[in-house]
Amino acid sequence: MLRSLIRRLFKLLLLLAAGSALLVLALRWVPPPFTAMMVERKIESWIGGEPIDLQRDWRPWKELPDALKMAVIAAEDQKFADHWGFDVAAIRAAFAHNERGGSLRGASTLSQQVAKNLFLWSDRSWLRKGLEVWFTGLIELFWPKQRILEVYLNSVEWGTGVFGAEAAARHHFDVGAPYLSTRQASQLAAVLPNPREWSAGRPSSYVQQRAAWIRRQMQQLGGSHYLARLQSGRTSGQ
């Protein structure tokens, strides 16, 4: 009976692995209709008794401004073009920092954030971390870097119930995503560590300083030349 149970469990795990792989592969071309984070926010609103209106409108890669693409890379993952989904050096530095105590520091790449936002729930359990590694590996295997960034920009939370670049641009600046200026794009990227508390449209002095740093980093990374590497697939990580 034990061998039979183990065999059935193994088959179930294989089916789940195959199903998740097929799902990730399909989403290489199909825009995700919603994300796990959106579901989580909706459930939170039901439990808390505070209705929430989720805002999200998909914008394809060509309609997303280069300034926003580069601002997010500069702010969140400057090695995005060069890694396989995990920034090992950043993980080691974060681990060492957290071991010394004080505020926790993360080291999630854009690929990891896509995996978490799209498929998983918010907590720091080992199970969730393990699934994040699995989905990040699938995303890096099946999607080009351009697609990863496209899904990220259309899925990340930029305020309570505000998901994706189009909703963020309209919520914070009353313009469509294609019309964001470089300054506006940098302010959106600047609030990503804490988008439910910080405002891109009404930035604090700290957010303004961080946005200015992001703009300098965008120039140092090469701007359009960096994005050309993503579009052509000329990355050392793939």
What's the gist of this structure?
This protein is mainly alpha-helical. It contains eleven helices and no strands.
Describe the secondary-structure layout.
Layout: H1 2-26, H2 36-48, H3 66-76, H4 88-99, H5 110-119, H6 126-142, H7 145-155, H8 164-173, H9 182-190, H10 205-221, H11 224-232
Give an overview of the whole structure.
The structure is a single chain. By secondary structure, the protein is an all-alpha fold. α3 runs parallel beside α9, α3 crosses α10 and α5 crosses α7. The protein is globular.
Q: What is the CATH fold-level name?
A: Penicillin binding protein transpeptidase fold
Order of helices and strands: HHHHHHHHHHH
Judged by helices, strands and strand pairing, the structural class is: mainly alpha
Q: Evaluate the radius of gyration.
A: 19 Å
- The end-to-end span amounts to 45 Å
Please describe the biggest sheet, giving its number of strands, its sense, and whether it closes into a barrel. Answer: none
What is the count of distinct domains? 1
Helix content: 55-70%
Name the CATH homologous superfamily. Biosynthetic peptidoglycan transglycosylase-like
* Assigned CATH class: Mainly Alpha
Uncertain runs are: none
Average pLDDT taken over every residue:
91
Can you name the CATH architecture? Answer: Orthogonal Bundle
Q: How many runs of DSSP E, i.e. beta strands?
A: 0
What does the overall shape look like? globular
Query: Strand fraction band?
Result: under 5%
Number of H/I helices: 11
